[in-house]
Design brief:
This protein has about 280 residues and is α/β, with parallel strands linked by helices. The protein starts with a helix and ends in a 7-residue tail after the last helix. It has a single domain, classed as Alpha-Beta Barrel (TIM Barrel). It has 11 helices and 9 strands. Strands 1-2-4-5-6-7-8-9 form an 8-stranded parallel β-barrel, surrounded by 4 helices. α5 links the parallel β4 and β5.
């Protein structure tokens, strides 16, 4: 029954959203009663609405679910939220993002490909996404920023500081594998949270000790001992990849038992249902 209620709530929220075009700490789970991993919806609720759109992200926030979004730069220098290097898959247009102006992209329909229900939805700018997040300051969510182009990182940090939400973000994408991007982000603000990837246990120690790293981004089910080592270092653990992206309740529970702080998945509603509510959700 809980899952049915959640899905119903998604559609109620989308129905509304589709018509609407102190001391900072690194966001993450706490060690108290809200120690369940934070759910991070891959490109939003991509199974329920068009990915990387404001309607989708608003639905996540209304449900107290974090999300991941992608950043690209247009030909005229604007930052837009779209996953692919072209607009072909998720809009009614064609062409590379870097070859199109913001005006070109804003003329496109980014919703009809998913369903006629979302006809007219636009590709949002990154500033619009950050402004939306700022509307939900009371909700304990984590937002992952997938940096597709290393040149955009500094600009995203500046915008996040402008909207006073930098502490709610963790930077991934090229950030996790390129030390120069992490350094660029930290130069823009030492408070910006960056992640470094560990694809397997053999890479864990290097990721944990990498400079300019606040989160260890694991692509395998890290052990309780590894997670404890990360927490002793004052850092957090973010898990993504095939072990958790699908509907895999057993793996989600293993991640939770290990103490992992955040899980990126295509099934965030099912994840929340499998792990039970945080006390702040009740």
């Amino acid at each position: 029954m809980r899952q049915i209620a959640l899905v119903f709530c998604v559609w109620v929220v989308f129905g509304t959203a589709a018509g609407q075009d102190g001391q900072q700490q690194v966001a993450g789970r706490s060690d108290g009663p809200d120690s369940r991993p934070l759910a991070v919806a891959h490109r939003g609720l991509l199974r329920h609405g068009p990915e990387n759109t404001l309607a989708n992200f608003r639905a996540c926030l209304e449900l107290r679910i974090g999300f991941e979004f992608d950043v690209q730069r247009t030909r005229d220098g604007h930052l837009v939220c779209i996953h692919d290097s072209t607009v072909d898959r998720t809009t009614n247009g064609t062409g590379r993002v870097v070859d199109l102006t913001l005006a070109d992209i804003r003329r496109l329909d980014a919703g009809r490909w998913f369903s006629n229900r979302f006809a007219g939805v636009k590709v949002p700018t990154v500033e619009e996404v950050l402004r939306l997040i700022a509307e939900y300051r009371q909700h304990p969510v984590l937002v992952a920023v997938d940096i597709k182009d290393r040149t955009v990182a500094r600009d995203v940090v500046i915008l996040a500081r402008k909207h006073k939400i930098l502490h709610r973000l963790v930077f991934i994408g090229t950030t996790i594998s390129e030390p120069a991007v992490r350094q660029q982000i930290k130069q823009a603000s030492p408070r910006a949270a960056t992640a470094t990837v560990a694809n397997n246990r053999g890479e864990f120690a290097a990721a944990l000790n990498a400079p300019n790293t606040d989160w260890v981004y694991v692509r395998y089910l890290a052990s309780k001992q590894e997670v404890a080592a990360v927490h002793r270092a004052g850092k957090r653990v973010f898990i993504a990849g095939s072990n958790v992206s699908g509907s895999v309740p057993d793996n989600w529970r293993r991640a939770a038992i290990a103490g992992i702080d955040a899980i990126l998945t295509d099934y965030p509603l099912e994840l929340q249902s499998a792990l039970g509510p945080r006390s702040s959700d009740k």
